[in-house]
Amino acid sequence: MSATSPVIVILGAGSNIGQTVGKFFAGKGYKVALAARSLNEADSTENQLHIASDFSNTDDVVNVFKKVNSKLGIPSVVVYNASSMSPSPAEDPFSLPIASFTKTLTVNVTSAFVAAQQAVEGFAKLPESASKTFIYTGNILNVAILPGFLEPGIGKSGAAHLIWAASEAYKDRGYKFYYVDERKPDGSAIFRVSGDAHANHFWGLAQSKTQGPWLQSFVKGTGYKDCGPYKL
Ligand SMILES: NC(=O)c1ccc[n+]([C@@H]2O[C@H](COP(=O)([O-])OP(=O)(O)OC[C@H]3O[C@@H](n4cnc5c(N)ncnc54)[C@H](OP(=O)(O)O)[C@@H]3O)[C@@H](O)[C@H]2O)c1
Fold first, then answer.
1. Residues tagged active-site
2. Which atom of ligand 1 is nearest to the CA of 21?
3. pTM of the model
4. What backbone phi and psi angles, to 5 degrees, belong to 29?
């Protein structure tokens, strides 16, 4: 693989979306960096870096970018896929302990903000032709409430706002920001997401030259679908 091969970093890379997206982009000639709590750095190879990280600590996000920049090169595609939640009692969501709430917001929003800061710092140094794409794996919770899902709902809503604002602020520089939300064909929420469908969709977003709709609801096998306002 050439020294100029593009680089993708996946923050929060497990066996489904993370690994599948990594394999897909590797097949297209990308060098891949995967970061998650249970990854072992000793399993890294020349073209695939594994970085043990816990994004309940924002310093770990900065550490990922330092390692990726020095070992593989500046990433042109950044995927933020980590998420955290504790179920909240449906009838009493405010009984959640503050420590749990804070941790979820750190993983779902604050660390994504730091990742976006790092991504943009890198994008500015990449050539014109580079992809410069930041993707946040979302779900329906930025437009819907679900009983028991207060923490992740606040987290995904905050991240959706971050992505929306960034998609406007950076579009003239050619940086693309997406909140991706897989849905069922009828537009309702899906609970078992498809790693393959995410890999295909992320590839399309990384390939496109200009910013498309920041809110990328999509359906496996069909692609982007404007799901409109959610009806309970
Ligand atoms: N569209 C929808 O309706 C929908 C439905 C379900 C899920 N989702 C979203 O899909 C994403 C996850 O999908 P997946 O489970 O298929 O992906 P995955 O790549 O199989 O797993 C994500 C990985 O993130 C890592 N992670 C979690 N917390 C972390 C932390 N604090 N620090 C570092 N890494 C962390 C975990 O690995 P370690 O345990 O090793 O850290 C986990 O295996 C989430 O963003 C979730 O909200 C969307």
1. 156
2. 19
3. 0.98
4. 100, 10
